[in-house]
Design brief:
By secondary structure, the protein is an alpha+beta fold. The protein has three helices and two strands. It has a two-stranded antiparallel ribbon. Helix 1 crosses helix 2. It is elongated and about 65 Å long.
Length: 118
């Protein structure tokens, strides 16, 4: 479906037509309950973006789920490295952080695989 954007320049109306390819996706209805303030905020933002509130809600849900999946993947990768003996001990990390903004600021610790309990 083409979209048209028009604006006036020196009393002349200039219009641009663009076509977007729409990929039909199967969707299912899903009902959620929103408190009144959240609903109003969503509707206000949807009006600003000239989009249906449901479209913004779907985008927000998708972004949140993608973010959580990325966080889980990062945690899984870190656990895998730690299981291989590649990690920074809490003491090394705390010493580095404690040195920030001091005259003797330490370099960032490097994974050594050694722990104080080993």
């Amino acid at each position: 479906m083409p979209s048209v954007y028009c604006e006036f320049h020196s009393d002349v109306l200039h219009c641009t037509t663009t076509r977007k390819q729409v990929i039909a996706m199967s969707t299912s209805p899903y009902s959620i309950r929103l408190d009144e303030d959240l609903r109003k905020t969503l509707e206000r933002e949807a009006a600003i973006e000239d989009r249906p509130p449901a479209q913004l809600a779907v985008r927000a849900i998708r972004m949140m789920l993608e973010s959580k999946a990325a966080k889980r993947a990062a945690i899984d990768a870190a656990v895998e490295k730690a299981d291989q003996g590649k990690f920074i001990t809490a003491d090394e990390m705390n010493a580095w952080i404690d040195s920030w903004d001091t005259e003797n600021e330490l370099s960032a610790p490097v994974a050594s695989g050694q722990s104080n309990s080993q």
